[in-house]
Amino acid sequence: MPLQRNDLARWDQRIERAKELAKDYPAASELLAFYQEIATFQKSLLADPNLVRVDGSPQPENVSFLDSLDLAPLLPNFPSLLSLVRRVGPPALAEIAEELAQADRGYWEHLLSTYWRVEPHTVDDAPETHLFFARAFLQPYAEDLASQRTIELPRFGSSSCPICSGKPQVGVLREEGHGARRSLICSLCLTEWGYRRVLCPACGEDRFDALPVYTASQFEHVRVEACDTCKRYIKTVDLTKNGHAVPVVDELATTPLTLWAEEKGYTKLQPNLLGI
Known about the structure:
By secondary structure, this protein is an alpha/beta fold. It has helices at 9-24, 29-47, 78-88, 91-102, 105-117, 128-148, 247-253, 255-263, and strands spanning 168-176, 179-186, 192-194, 213-216, 219-226, 232-238, 267-268. The chain has two domains: 9-148, no CATH class; 168-268, no CATH class. The chain is globular and about 50 Å long.
């Protein structure tokens, strides 16, 4: 069965948002330009009519997400990602792409299949720089597969993605009644699910005074939600303040918030697509 392509426009939205943010935040323009290249590549993977859906079952819900990857028809596209990063990626990442291009195909299979199947999408014997390539390559397939699932998402779920068990990349605040509802977005399949407003997604701390929130004037709609118990943090995009924001893209543009949080001794709960 061919990949479903009803939501390819999501990539166009992300790419256009990255272009807008690059103008608004020149300090992040190079990073956002690289993201545009990666997002364009991801879109091209799903637009390829020769690819089959990652799940061979006609009913995706009958196969667990972690068992649904059919890597064989996808792997021939992996060298194209390596070539792209060698051409337009940051120098350090371009070097890693060159190393991977020279690696045995068996290692590619190990890296990609392990990243997909092992919770919460880690590969113990691979450096973090290699995980960027696994994340960038598998994310469009993961998102497409997740969109086909028909499970009812919880209003207040756990800190792990209810579809693929991945860690959250970014939080979201959406208007609800007289306040805002909090949700999390998965770092792999980009599923969004509800989460309690005052609760650390890293350790479960729920004491208000142990969960500081930090903002900066140049990023009024993005905040750092930290935890003084486990010293982890996650960024949250407030759509009640900027309805045009695209959380997975706006989070990328706020690198000064990342640097600030790290200077204060906090560690990010989960790297974003670009490994930041």
